[in-house]
Amino acid sequence: MPMLDGSIDSYGQTARHYRSAWQDCGRTDTGQPEIVVFGHAHVSDAEDAMAAFYPYYSAYLRPLFNGQMREATYRAWWSPLGSFVAGSAQQVVDKLAALHAATGCSLFAGQIDIGAQPFAQVMRGIELMAKKVAPALRQL
Fold it and tell me: What pTM was estimated for this model as a whole?
């Protein structure tokens, strides 16, 4: 399930609708459907992570918005129940836990290299995802 715009709650509704349609089609003998969520991700240990990442993300999404992404939209997506999986390692853990609770997803595939960030920033995000986010999620 691609995740761009909206809220975690709206994706939970989509997942419930999908599961209902799955059962309505008589597929109950094959078990429950797997739900995989695909979305953008940004993990940072910078104090100003949200402000620092805005120019990169806004530039990346410029074609979608036919210009600069509004900061209010960016803040809404970044918020705890917004659609952008971003923030500190703990914020990302919290958002992915909320996403799992709402959708029952078994996997999140996060696109981290977005917006032409410097290589070191991308690598730091991957490192934080591997060393802090993934182990914390395994404990849930």
Answer: 0.92
